[in-house]
Amino acid sequence: MMQGFKDESYNIDFEDGLFESIMEHLIRCSDEMKADCIETGNLLNNNEDKITNRLVENYLNKGSAFMRFILQSPESFVPDEDIYKGRTDIKVVPQNWFMDINDYYIIECKRIDGKAKLNKEYIINGIARFVISPPKYSSFNKRNIMFGYVVQDINIPNNTIEIERLQKTMIDEVTSEGFILNNNSGAECYIYSCKYTVNTEWIELRHLFYDFSDCISS
Q1: Residue 61 domain boundaries
Q2: Residue whose C-alpha is closest to residue 101's, from 140, 133, 65, 71
Q3: Which residues neighbour 59 within 8 Å (Cβ) at sequence distance 6 or greater?
Q4: Which of 109, 116, 207, 122 lies closest to 157, judged by CA?
Q5: DSSP readout, 171-211?
Q6: What are the DSSP calls for 41-84, one per residue?
Q7: Contact yes or no for 112/122 (Cβ under 8 A)
Q8: pLDDT by residue (tens digit) across 106-141?
Q9: Which string of DSSP letters, residue by residue, matches 120-153?
Q10: In total, how many domains does the chain have?
């Protein structure tokens, strides 16, 4: 996505703006989906794939002319074995993707309920896929997104502290700078950033925790 400007500072500004636009679009679509669930009574199943499917099919790809959101995209091809190491939840590709097919973002989705099992799942089968060498997911722009579907009514900041504590012990071979709160919208949406050093190179994961607890089917 960083092509077309001779001055690298313009490329960086453009890339920053595009990434923030993706975050804003995720939040806006989550707001719309939550409102529709409550208004219609068509609540979400407490299932990661089903939440992701509805979000992508009914919201993310509508009203977004500058990028596409692709479900379940294979990632990290291994030539010697003819297999892929991973499969992304959501792959975000821009309009000009064919100029460089490596130039995209990944959104990894995980449920969060405030309990240790899902917090650990968020780390081992979420964060670690980006930062443990060799990574299952690529980070062409040195940024990607972890999307936490909060499915129980919990204190999100307190649970984020617990995830931060756990990641230090569960992926201790990777250096992280800790979670920094970027923004929060009331008590239902919190955005954190965290930088990780992987083989002397850093990448940033933006952690979006969105409270869907009052539209989850019992």
Answers
A1: 8-215
A2: 140
A3: 29, 30, 32, 33
A4: 207
A5: TTTSEE---EEEEEETTTEEEEEEEEEETTEEEEEEEEEEE
A6: --PBPS-HHHHHHHHIIIIITSS-TTEEEEEEEEEEEETTTTEE
A7: yes
A8: 999 999 999 999 999 999 999 999 999 888 898 989
A9: HHHIIIIIHHHHSSSPSS--TTSEEEEEEEE-S-
A10: 1
CA 163 to chain CA centroid, Å, is 15
Tens digits of residue pLDDT in 12-29: 555 677 899 999 999 999
Distance CA 71, CA 56 (A): 7
Q: Quick one: pLDDT at residue 87?
A: 75
In-domain check, residue 116 = yes
pTM of the model: 0.88
Reading the block at residue 202, the tokens are 């850093």
pLDDT for 75: 61
Spatial distance between the Cα atoms of 43 and 107, rounded to a whole number of angstroms: 23
Which helix (H) or strand (E) is 110 found in, with range? Answer: strand 105-112
Residue with tokens 């959501």: 90
Q: Indicate whether 161 belongs to any domain.
A: yes
Q: Which amino acid is at 59?
A: Y
- Joined tokens for residue 171: 């992926």
In a domain, 181, yes or no: yes
Pairwise CA distance, residues 118 & 218, whole Å: 18
Q: What is the pLDDT of residues 54-70, one digit of tens each?
A: 999 999 998 776 789 99
Q: Does 65 fall in a domain? A: yes
